[in-house]
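Closing statement on the flavin-adenine dinucleotide sub-project.
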Amino acid sequence: MNKNKKIVIIGGGISGLELIKLLGKKIGYKNITLIDKNLFHVWKPILHEIASGYLDANINTINFLDHAKDNNYNFKLGTLININRYKKFITYEYLNNLENKKKKIKKLNYNILIIAIGSISNDFNIPGIKKKCFFLDNIKHAMLLHKKLFNILLTFNNDKIYDIKNLIKINIVIIGGGATGIELSAEIVNLIKELKKYGYNYFDNKKINITIIEAGSKILSLLPNKISIYVYNILKKININILVNTLVTNIYEHGLKTKTNFYINADLIIWTAGIKVPDFIKHIKGLEINNINQLIIKSTLQTTLDNNIFAIGDCSSLKINNKFIPACAQSAHQMVKICCKNIISILNKTSMSVFKYIDYGTLISLSEFNTIGYLVLNIINKKIIIKGKLARFLYITLYKMHQIKIQGYNKTFLFLIVNIINKFIRPKIKIK
Ligand SMILES: Cc1cc2nc3c(=O)[nH]c(=O)nc-3n(C[C@H](O)[C@H](O)[C@H](O)COP(=O)(O)OP(=O)(O)OC[C@H]3O[C@@H](n4cnc5c(N)ncnc54)[C@H](O)[C@@H]3O)c2cc1C
């Protein structure tokens, strides 16, 4: 095996960080470099729980520098901006130090490059969206939204004390009826419930409107109908308004407009509708992309035009048996094994393996109100619906399995203990 080849992984998300660990175990970490634009890794499916204050960002993120030190690989804090495929180097923008806003450009050579930069919210260039909407793509967004939610709710509570005519209300609008929007809406209702225990008693369900707006004909359109209906009924029960077949066309300072020219007031708008890969990828020469900038890959996970460049996770687009592999944590995780195998095949000059996707199911967490989803029993090719405590247990297990993969059993167990202790000694929700 040629262990001297330089392997560069861009993006330390679910797929990138799991890949580093697996590759390191198989071939050693010496020639592996990870570049990420953030200093911290986070399991994105918990972002809405960080936004609501239910989970603490400090103990649910992993510092890349620390992870690299423990595992002996190179980490560079930087943002990929270009790839020179012919001379085999990438260029990335980095900050000299964490306070310095001045960015510098650096080059890094590679023999094998893995792009695992994930996705961001697709804003569809809707007028007003960048200025007014909140997003939930990374830890910074989650913390920003947390601050905004708290401010808006506390201001409402304090103003309500003097609201003799009962006029004050707030409108929170979540655009996108997929898993992220749905889970976030339930988290916000739970946050309001928890805040009441801290003496914020003036919350009145009729005066806090939470609305989910979905362009399609139903929420959770990718899940079985039964789950979509079940979730719809729970959301209705906890007073969340749901508008389907509603396409948002404009965002304004205090509201939004739909395609049918309907104006909806909004004090807070959170955009969770659709994904894309950042636009800079369009300018990299010689890589094939689709309409949302995902890199088109072959079943070996190599990009279609360059066998030395792999793409995995949300930033890749792969069609198997006429079906696109969904952009989700499960696919990102499953791609890691074949990507690692095929990198080793290049080093050994042996034949490549082909990726096969297995759908094990999906789970939706509705905060304290329920968890629901389906599991696929692949032997009999049947989907079974699960809910309640079992579903919640499996939902948490998925996160723990990811933590075990990237930090091992001992650290994951210790973090679990810290989390349990924190539940007793710290407030149930982060109140600041
Ligand atoms: C709020 C939320 C909830 C979700 N819930 C679920 C769920 O319940 N179940 C599920 O299956 N999926 C869920 N998903 C989707 C899931 O998180 C993604 O499919 C998964 O994270 C994709 O993994 P990835 O490795 O492709 O990218 P990511 O995990 O997104 O990681 C990408 C990494 O690349 C880095 N990066 C990005 N651009 C650059 C650049 N130019 N240069 C350097 N580094 C860069 C980022 O900082 C990040 O660390 C959710 C997503 C969100 C946002």
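Residues 388-425 form the longest helix (38 residues). With this model delivered, the sub-project is considered complete and its resources will be redirected to Aim 3.
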